Amino acid sequence: MINLIKTGQHDQLEIEKKANSLQGKISIPGDKSISHRALMLGAIASGETVIEGLLLGEDPRSTAKCFQAMGAQISELNSEKVILRGIGQKTLQEPLNILDAGNSGTTMRLMLGLLASQPDKFFIVTGDDSLRSRPMARVINPLQQMGALIYGRNNHKNAPLAVMGQNLKPIHYHSPVASAQVKSCILLAGLMTEGKTTVTEPALSRDHSERMLQAFGATLEINPDTHSVTIEGKIELHGQTVIVPGDISSAAFWLVAGAITPNSDLTIENVGINPTRTGILEALMMMGAEITLENERETAGEPVADLRVKSSKLKACTIEGAIIPRLIDEIPILAVAACFAEGTTIIKDAEELRVKESDRLTVMATELNKMGANITELPDGLEITGGVTLKGSEMDSYTDHRIAMSLAIAGLNAEGKTVINRAEAASISYPTFVDTLISLTNHR
Ligand code: S3P
C-alpha cells in the first residue's frame, strides 16, 4: 500500500511494505535536459518550434517562464505538445522583473550564457534556497573571460546574480569540470558572439546541446578525441520540431526497482539512450542486472529504445573515472542498487554530487544508513557494502527530487513501513512518479 499524505505545503510518501513483484510496461516523462534545451533554442530561434513529449516538471516550467518574460511566445504547459514562437537571435527583451530559475541549475547556468551576451540589457536572476547555494563561478568565470559583466553574492559566486549584457569576445575555454551545463553555457554565449568559441572538457559530458544546436542550424566543429566543441557565432537559429525521448535518469529508478524486486519483469518504453547518458546501463549490467534493449531506433537526432529489466542477482562493482559524467544523476539510485548487491561497491571521482540539488553523497549515506545500510562516505564518493536487509524508516528528501525517488525505491524493498518527507520534490523532474509507483504495486 502506497499513500501520499498532504501535510501543509509538503507531501509525505508512505510505503507500507515490501513489493513482491513489479510487472508490466510503463512510460516515463520526457528528458529534462532535452526539454530545457528545446525551450531555450526554440525561444531564441526565428519562427515556430514544436516540442513533442516535453517534460511537464517544475524545472522546464522555470525555463519557460524565464523566456516568456524575455519575449518568447510559449503555449501553455498543460500538454506534452508545446508550440513556441521564437524571438530570433539578439533580440531577447529586457525582462520587467527578476528571472526565477526555481530549483533548476540547468535553467540558470545555460541562460546566463545568453543573458551575458545581450548588449545593453540588464537582468537579475535568482532561484530557490538550493539553487542560491549552488556554485555559479564555474560559468561566471569563463563568461567574464569573454568580457561579461556579472555580479552576485559571495564575491560573485552565488545567485541572486545581476547581469549587464555585453558584446562578448570568443575564447577557448578549458573547463576544469566535465559539466554539460558549463559547456552549454559557453556554447550559447559563443552563438551570440562574433567569431569562434571553443570549450574543451576533461571528459565527455552529455551532448544534447551540440545535437540540438546543429538541428536548429548552428555551425559546430566537434572533436570527440579532445572533448572539444567549437561554435561559430552570429548564426541565426531556425525553429524546428523536437521530439523529446523519455528520460533515462527517470527510467533508472525503475531499472533498479525491477532488478532488486523479486519476480519482476518490467519494460520501460521510449527511453533516450544517447551514449553520453548510458553509464547507468553499463554500471547496472556490470553489476549483473538483466537488462535488454529492445526496439532500438532514432527519434529526431537522439537514439531511443525500450528497456526491459528482470529481477537479478546483483554483485558489487567499482564506478570511477570517465563513466561518472555519463551517470552523474543516477548515483543516488545506484547507491540503492549497491545495498542489494553482494560485496562492496565503490563509487569514486563523484565529488560533483556535493554541489547538486543537495549534497547527494552525504544525504544518501545518511538516509540509507537510517534504514540499516552499510555506507561509508568518501570525500569523492561512497563505499557501500550490500547484502544487509533494509528496514523501513522515516526519511527526508532534503527537497531533492532524485533523493525522494531513490529513497522510495529503497522503501519498496525494505522490511516494514517507510516514510519520505517532502516527497513533492519528485515533481521537479518526474511529476507522475508516485502515480506510476502506485499503479505498479496496487495489484497486490
Ligand atoms: C545537466 C547536466 C548535469 C546534470 C543535470 C542536467 C544538463 O549537470 O547533473 O541534472 O542538462 O546539462 P552538470 O553539467 O553540472 O554536471
Draw up the topology in text.
Blueprint: E1 2-7, E2 10-15, E3 23-27, H1 32-44, E4 48-52, H2 58-69, E5 73-74, E6 81-85, E7 99-100, H3 105-116, E8 122-126, H4 129-132, H5 137-145, E9 149-152, H6 153-156, E10 158-164, E11 172-174, H7 180-191, E12 196-200, H8 208-215, E13 220-223, E14 228-232, E15 241-243, H9 248-260, E16 265-272, H10 279-286, E17 290-299, E18 302-310, E19 318-319, H11 331-339, E20 344-347, H12 360-370, E21 374-378, E22 381-385, E23 394-396, H13 401-412, E24 418-421, H14 433-441
Parallel strand pairs: 3-16, 4-15, 7-8, 11-12, 19-20, 23-24
Antiparallel strand pairs: 1-2, 2-24, 4-6, 5-6, 8-10, 9-10, 12-14, 13-14, 16-18, 17-18, 20-22, 21-22
Helix pairs in contact: 1-2, 1-8, 2-3, 3-7, 5-7, 9-11, 9-13, 11-12, 11-13
Bound molecules: shikimate-3-phosphate.
Question: How would you describe the overall organization of this protein?
Answer:
The chain has 444 residues and is of the alpha/beta class. It has two domains: 227 residues, UDP-n-acetylglucosamine1-carboxyvinyl-transferase, Chain (Alpha-beta prism); 212 residues, Enolpyruvate transferase domain (UDP-n-acetylglucosamine1-carboxyvinyl-transferase, Chain), CATH 3.65.10.10. The chain is built from 14 helices and 24 strands. Helix 1 runs parallel beside helix 8 and helix 3 runs parallel beside helix 7. The protein is globular. The chain binds shikimate-3-phosphate. Shikimate-3-phosphate binds next to helix 1 and helix 7.
